[in-house]
Amino acid sequence: MSERQPPRGERWSGRLGFVLATIGSAVGLGSIWKFPYEVGENGGGAFVLFYLLGLVLVVLPLIFAEFALGRRGRGDAAASVAAVAAEAGRSPRRWAWIGGLAIATGFLILTYYAVVGGLTLAYLLHAIRRGFAGADGAATRALFEAMTGSPAALAAYQAAFLAATVAVVARGVGGGIERACRVLMPLLAALMLGLVAYAATAGDLRRTVAFLLAPRPEALTPRVALEALGLGFFSIGVGLGAMITYAAYAGRDTDLTTAAVATVAGDTAISFLAGFAVFPLVFAHGLDPAEGAGLMFLTLPIAFGRLPFGDAVGAAFFLSLFVAALASAVSLLELAVAPVVQRTGWPRARAAVGAGVVCWLLGLPSVLSFNLWREVRPLGAVPGFATAGLFDAIDRIASNLLLPASGLLLAVFAGWVARGDLLAAELRWGPRAVGALRFLLRWVVPALILAFVALGHLPR
Length: 460
Known about the structure:
By secondary structure, the chain is mainly α. The chain has helices at about 15-25, 30-40, 45-75, 75-85, 90-130, 135-150, 150-170, 175-200, 205-215, 220-235, 240-245, 255-285, 295-305, 310-345, 350-370, 390-415, 420-425, 430-455. It is globular, with a radius of gyration of 21 Å. The termini are far apart. Pfam families: SNF. Keywords: Membrane, Symport, Transmembrane, Transmembrane helix, Transport. It is found in: Membrane. This is Transporter.
């Protein structure tokens, strides 16, 4: 078959730009707080071993598959799946909906992710203008209530975050996404390294090392081991089709295997840096490391208020959160903008603005779930959703149901429908390596994803 070209001539300038963009897609808010917390609370080094096993068995196979599908299909997630299906002698219409599901899931996630991204911007501005000096638990709770209690203010921060996302995507792949990631990813790494250096001198580094790395096999129950295997899948966001879209813009000279490994390694490195930046400060001030999402907005500001140059440290931390959130949001918006541009012929700027406006409107229920609709329980009659507000309900549906479904279907498609010589050609692998990858995609990845989903419905 003739070599397909990237959509509308969009292309990464080279492997570095592509890898920085894919790392930006993988790194998100969860990489900053969820990964370190999960490691520390669930067995330390023993948990890490199972996490790394999950990367090998689930995450890397899916990234390899998405990269191969994207560069061969040369389109958005749905168009690439359709093109690969046609090449395999299958009906494009019967399979394209898998890519469509991935696009819809990513866009749904962006609608509420932008609300949290807006909060990182709000806290960044607060750190710069007023700081956290003297903050205690009551003060940080009051600050959070003030930040989220006004629908207009929260919607405005959500809009500002989306506006930044739209501004990047509207400028195209090379001039927008790649250029932004060439700034954002080194900036994020520099911020994390600076925070780690500060935390090592001002915090309790020894206890952090024990918390994150010391093996504690007794804490690693079968359930926790399965959670470790699945953590990479949910935190890196494979299965959304964003990697398909980004790979569609990759040149033939880009080594997809190296890019996939670099993406996973980069995300994991940022996660560990975040742990060594955050937990020394938490431990040094007797705070609770088990706060989960509250660690970002409720616990850490207390530590910042007690530290020398704490406001500057707090500003750097919330800037790093904003950068991580923005880079990830860019990939989610591009996931939706690409098919609009390719199917309607709209200019990219118009498609990006239109998608941004729709995303903002669809995100308003999540905004209102923090204030006017705080008591609304839309799925109260559904088991497992009795106490879930709008924000939590949407998050659970998207992250715990739609995302696993999308990842499972993409694995099945790549393992059973896509031709083996496609994977061999795009990844430049021999028959044995391709055979091993197809075995993982056909059997191991679907089985583990189903296990992750089942685990989420079991009582602790």
